Amino acid sequence: MGTGAPVFRRSTLIDMNDFFDSRVRTDDVDDTQAWLQAQYGQVDVLADRASIAEHAVGDTAFALRHLIWECRAEIVYEADRFFFATSTTGYSWSIGATSGDYSVEPGIVEPGHELIGRPDRADVQLLAFDASWLTETARTIYGDDDLIVRFEGMGPVSRHMRDYWLATLRWSLTQTPLLAEPLVRAHVRRALASATLEAFPLVGDPRERRASAIEQAAIYRAATSWIDDHASLPVTVDDAAHAVGASTRGLRRAFLANGHLASSPEDYLSAARLSAAHADLLDADAEGISVDEVAVRWGFVDPEAFASAYLHAYRVSPQRTLER
After folding, report:
1. Which residues contact 233 (CB under 8 A, 6 or more apart)?
2. 84 or 30, which is more confident?
3. Of 215 and 57, which is predicted with more confidence?
4. Phi, psi of 47 (to 5 degrees)
5. Domain 205-324's class?
6. Which InterPro entries match (predicted)?
7. Would you call 96 helix, strand, or coil by DSSP?
8. What is the pLDDT of residues 238-256, one digit of tens each?
9. Is the pLDDT of residue 47 over 80?
10. Are residues 148 and 112 in contact, defined by beta-carbon separation less than 8 angstroms?
């Protein structure tokens, strides 16, 4: 074992949304092997000197992990979630009779698969998804309540989709300093899931899935346009669904699948009315109208709730906007 100053360092932050941001570095062979075995199952470090560093960030639904292997090792790991990996030169792998190298092409490890990995001084990026969460997300995106997420191959469906997935992963890594914010994290998590489900070969007919996704996107676009045009009227979500030829349940699914700014039609309608109230406050004469009157005009009957929502959206009180 190493002596002197501690060679094992970890810092972890957890909030009430199960968010974590942890960093680990080991600089001793025994410490390295012990930590790797605790995290990744059976590991044999094949070197007299070894270190590893990992930065992991995410929540119970997904995680981004960056590992720097300064050693040669062999890993036998039975996955309990979906993993998607890419690396620099030096990480060969096999799953059953299939083998590859993560530096050549990104690869999948599905729940229940036993991965044999052979990292050799490699820099690895891992994207992990909880299986239940990814399944529910796929069902929402493709409008199929019976869909089970399984993949037909280990790599992307095409070079173009490989590049698309890698670009999405690189973009997500630029957002890691902001992932403690739940809205940012939800956006990044959803973007990664969408890219992954499109880039890797899901079992089933991709034409049917794509048609369903396109249909939901069309419903979403039509509904947001209708809501924008009718926000000043006493309309409901049921009215919006009827106007675009969808059920209320189908409309909510379309928003879950496509709504980056609002995940439900109710939230979108509220945001549209809040935006209209903001425009009215900017144009109004403070001597001729009150904040409460503007709020009621746009359907906000609780002044305190309106003021709170307005402050959250515009970082200033509605009264200050009116009196600018």
Report:
1. none
2. 84
3. 57
4. -160, 155
5. mainly alpha
6. AraC_XylS_family_regulators, HTH_AraC, HTH_AraC-typ_CS
7. coil
8. 999 999 888 888 888 888 8
9. no
10. no
Cα–Cα distance measured from residue 317 to residue 291, given in angstroms and rounded to the nearest whole number? 10
Q: Where are the domains of the chain?
A: 8-199, 205-324
Among candidate residues 64, 203, 178, 79, the one with its CA nearest the CA of residue 93? 79
Q: Which amino acid is at 134?
A: L
CB atoms within 10 A of CB 119: 25
User: What pLDDT does 193 receive?
Assistant: 92
Nearest to 129 by CA among 83, 168, 175: 83
Report the candidate in 216, 67, 39, 42 with the shortest Cα–Cα distance to residue 127: 67
Given a contact cutoff of 8 angstroms between Cβ atoms, the answer to whether 52 and 26 are in contact is yes
CB proximity list for 78: less than 8 A, separation 6 or greater: 41, 112, 113, 114, 115
Tokens of 127: 């994207």
State the burial class of residue 58 (Cβ atoms within 10 Å of its Cβ: 0-12, 13-18, 19+): buried
Distance, in Å, from the CA atom of 323 to the CA atom of 236, rounded to the nearest integer, reads: 32
Phi, psi torsion values for 77, nearest 5 degrees: -135, 125
Tokens standing for 23?
Answer: 């960093």
Span 197-219, mean pLDDT? 81
- pLDDT at position 13 over 60: no
pLDDT digits (tens, 9 = 90+) for 147-171: 889 998 899 999 999 999 999 999 9
Helix (H, G, I), strand (E, B) or coil at 206: helix
What is the four-CA torsion angle of 77, 82, 88, 89, rounded to 10 degrees?
A: 50
